[in-house]
Amino acid sequence: MKRTFFFILLFTIIPYTFADLLTDITDGKYKAKTIANMKSMNDGEHYTLLENNRLIVRYSFKTGKVLDTIFNAATSKLNKLDQITGYEFSPNELKILVFNKQKFRYRRTFTSDYFVFDVKRNELKPLSENGPQEVPLFSPDSRYIAFARENNLFLHKLDFGTESAITKDGEFGKIINGTPDWVYEEEFVNTRYFVFSPDSKLLAFVRFDETAVPSYQMQRYLESPLKQDEMPLYPVFQSFKYPKPGQPNSKVSVCVYDDFYKSVRTINLGVDDAEFYIPRIKWTKEQDKLAVFVLNRNQNRLDMIYSHPKSLVSKLILRDEDKYYVDFENIDDVNFSDDGKFFTFVSERNGWRHAYLYNVNGTLQKQLTLGNFDVTKVYGYDDVKQTLYYQSTENSPLQRDVYSVDTKGKKTLLTDGKGTHSAVFSATYAYFSDNASSLNKPNITYMRNSKGEILRILEDNATLMAEFNALNLPKKEFFSFTTSEGVTLNGWMLKPSNSNSQQSYPTLMVQYSGPNSQDVKDSWNVGWEYFLASQGYVVASVDGRGTAARGTEFRKSTYMRLGVLETKDQVEAAKYLGKQSFVDKNRIGIWGWSYGGFMTLNAMSTGEKIFKAGIAVAPVTDWRLYNSAYTERFMRQPKENNGGYDAGSPIKHAANLNGNVLIIHGTADDNVHVQNTYLYLDALQKADKHAELYLYTDKNHSILGKETRRHLYKKKFDFLEKNLKN
To answer: In this predicted structure, what is the pLDDT of residue 359?
Structure first.
């Protein structure tokens, strides 16, 4: 017993090591807490939070006091749940949809067994007894719930507890009703493609016909029909439709279901293009105006069309065109006013992303925001106060603030003009939570009123800040420089712990570099760069051309030539860093994931011996291998831009690879297929070039799992120690 006690005592006084730091970072210990699941109630005076994955608790916006617990998973009648993952109120707030167990198909789509909770009766009932459901939706009158199952749509009538099929032609690999195909889910970031009419009598939905779309087959090696403890003898094939550039996309149409007549009819959109996307459908406040948003295949023209659900006739209301491309995310900033008279629209027509006010018939009323900055989010339009609430980069492209502006042009800064702020507004815009952070300060969540005045602090992350400060790690610093082409680029840098001004250090460049991305921002983010700094590395990140928040021309300068200008900028950044006294110019490395992996391979294949080592995780190696919607948005189809595809292809430049490179890929990556890595390795072999390869069996694009992430980052660090530091 004494020996055991002595051992434990010794164990407890072993000091915290920086190996522990890497584990803590990969496990998410230094990720800041936020109030992410706040939901405003209809009155705009109260909100709810999901607490301990078990309770839905109601709070006062004004005072912050707990008023009551609306739902307790453990005490509901008829059925009880151990916990819930998410919830959604009915429009009348008398019922709540809850779910707990999720089975993901890809990155966003999942099935679950949903339950309907009756608030007054404290009763919890299954939504359906006929199998898991997807993306259920309450009708505006709260009497119906529409949901998807196995490519078909269903209607549950709450008054009678009945379930009926809306569609019956859904079939895997052929027809999908109301939920997206793979490319729509991934690139248009939406999981539900059906909406109720304002009077709840009609349901509009998008129908996907993916019959002609080519399939991609993945092998899975750990799945087996045998017993769990037996080794799988043969791989399992997973096939799914995946359109690549120039290949057929799903054919899409908009249909309307009328429950009274039990009929499904197809709307005539009046679109002349043979191929197009429907990234969103939204019902306006009027029964006869279904807003259908149509993008041509090149995605440089966005049409907002009103379709009449009874006559099936459509009318073009608004068209937004761009010499490069129209960002589909602009659609999410279309807000129809409660009185049905106006809607907001976001466009880059004047070189910056700004908000405009239109009347319901598509006539421009006013440009609401103006200046050399980008509106990055529209929170909504209050038609009573005639005021728009939005987020923008007006103060700095590195920062985000929340503003209001009325139709008379009166603009109010609602946050403090420092760092990065994002908001969640109450239903009446009387209050909002402000999630604020900066480069070296974790998130603080404030509750503010409509004037921006702080009412209280909801989360200060003080414990996190104290724990992180106790590590005595260096602080990130912003810097900027001008390239040989006269372009000013922004970056951040971490110098090694206890760095010596007389010493130069190995340096790793961290980047993503994809279109409209932004790594250099005044916000809190603790990644493995801090661990590297503790181990004697300089770590730097530079946002090159094509990244966000600096206007249309900067953001879209990489159009038709992905990988060309971005590569030049990363090389220029490396040369700039190499001139700094604390950087060893002969020991500069670069790494990135996905687009960042693509950039790593390109930066190391310029023919210049700039980078000693690089790490590419899940890299695209030729844009012909990626999906159609993303690639063609920036590159058009290969037949239109074959030279542009070649210019940015690591495969085409494999013979120019210089330095030591580690390539990592998940074998079940449905997004950037491992095919990219295999073809690149073949090109290296033919050019008598060499690379290290590590594969994660049956892992997808994110290579998730606590132990997996620990292994991944240890693998990367060991590679740098061997190939960059020494």
So the answer is: 96
Whether this prediction's pTM lies above 0.90 is answered by yes
Tally the domains of the chain. 1
Average pLDDT over residues 339-363: 96
Mean pLDDT, range 112-141, rounded to an integer: 97
Domain span at residue 561 reads: 473-725
> In terms of Cα–Cα distance, which of 402, 455, 343, 383 is closest to 45?
455
Is residue 96 helix, strand or coil?
strand
Instruction: Tell the residue number behind the tokens 């539900």, with chain if given.
Output: 192
Rounded CA separation 518/510 (Å): 12
* Confidence check: pLDDT of 12 > 50: no
Is residue 613 domain-resident?
yes
Reference 497, options 2, 21, 11; nearest CA is 21
**DSSP string of 136-194?**
EEE-TTSSEEEEEETTEEEEEETTTTEEEES----BTTTEEESS--HHHHHHS--S--E
pLDDT class of 16 with cuts at 50, 70, 90: low
| Contact between residue 173 and residue 241 where contact means Cβ atoms under 8 Å apart | yes
In a domain, 565, yes or no: yes
Sign of CA dihedral 706, 712, 715, 720: negative
pLDDT-derived band at 6 (thresholds 50, 70, 90) equals very low
Residue 226 CA: distances (Å) to CA of 222, 230, 234? 11, 6, 10
DSSP code per residue over 585-623: EEEEEEEEETHHHHHHHHHTTSSS---SEEEEES----G
Catalytic residue positions, numbered:
594, 669, 701
Is pLDDT at 596 greater than 70 in this prediction?
A: yes
DSSP state of 3: H
CA 73 to chain centre: 30
What is the rounded distance in angstroms from the CA atom of residue 542 to the CA atom of residue 492? 7
Average pLDDT, the chain: 95
| Exposure on the CB side of residue 147, measured as CA atoms within 13 A | 28
Closest listed residue to residue 176, CA positions, set 161, 162, 191: 191
- For residue 66, what is the enclosing H or E element? strand 66-72
Closest CA to 303 of 274, 267, 332, 279: 279
Q: What are phi and psi of 423, to 5 degrees?
A: -125, 150
pLDDT of residue 342: 94
Does any domain span residue 148? no
Strands 420-425 and 431-438: antiparallel
Q: Are 432 and 419 in contact (CB under 8 A)?
A: no
How much is the average pLDDT of 499-526?
Answer: 95
Pairing of strands 411-413, 420-425: unpaired
The domain spanning residue 521 has which CATH number? 3.40.50.1820
Residue 379: what residue type? Y
419 located within any domain: no
Cβ-contact 701, 563 below 8 angstroms? no
Which two structure tokens, joined as six digits, stand for 133? 């459901």
Helix (H), strand (E) at residue 406: strand 401-406
Q: Convert 380-396 to b/e letters by CB count within 10 Å (16 or more is b).
A: bbbeeeebbbbbbbbbb
Percent helix / strand / coil, the chain, rounded to 5: 20, 35, 45
Q: Are 58 and 69 in contact (CB under 8 A)?
A: yes
Please state the rounded mean pLDDT for residues 299-324: 97
State the Cα torsion 222-228-232-235 to the nearest 10°. Answer: -40
Query: Does the pLDDT at position 242 exceed 70?
Result: yes
Q: What is the rounded CA–CA span in Å between residue 601 and residue 678?
A: 14
> Contact at 8 Å (CB) between 306 and 343?
no
By C-alpha distance, which of 626, 561, 619, 565 is closest to 590? 619
Q: Tokens 């300068």 — which residue? A: 557
